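Proteins fold reproducibly. Take a tokenised chain:

. . .
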Amino acid sequence: MDKIVTDWTNASELGGVFQRMAPFLKMYTSYSNRYAESMEILERLMNRNDKFVAELAACREKSGSQYKLPDLLIMPIQRIPRYSLLLGDLLRNTDPYHPDYLPLADALSKITEVATHINEEVRRMENIRKVEQMQEKGIKLANLIKPHRYLIKEGIAKV
């Protein structure tokens, strides 16, 4: 990618870079699945552990970063949508007859598929966590947690 940017001309092509990169972006799924839980843990630590808060502040000061830890932790979550926006802008501003037009369109499609995959997996994990919470609250049913089970509806049941 650096070489493409350094040697940029009107005939340069960027779509292939994103086409090749797209399959690897699915690795963000596991990070995204644990993000909400991680933020809850971080919030609890920050509310209960002054030493932890002081250490975070010291690390931030030492690094010279303007960002707090939650700001940094959200960045990987934002990356895929940003790629999608970037590719959409590139595609809109690329002549349909340019050699990079079709690769950009394909890359946008692949990045969109990755984003959809990540969102579906995050929703699936949220449902699994809700079922786990029901089990932990002592709902007296058979073991609710099975690989094939997911939450369909949440609410008060009337018989």
Q: What stands out?
A: Helices lie at 2-6, 15-21, 28-48, 50-63, 69-92, 101-136. The two ends are 61 Å apart (CA to CA). The domain at 13-112 is CATH 1.20.900.10 (Dbl Homology Domain; Chain A). The chain has a mean pLDDT of 87.
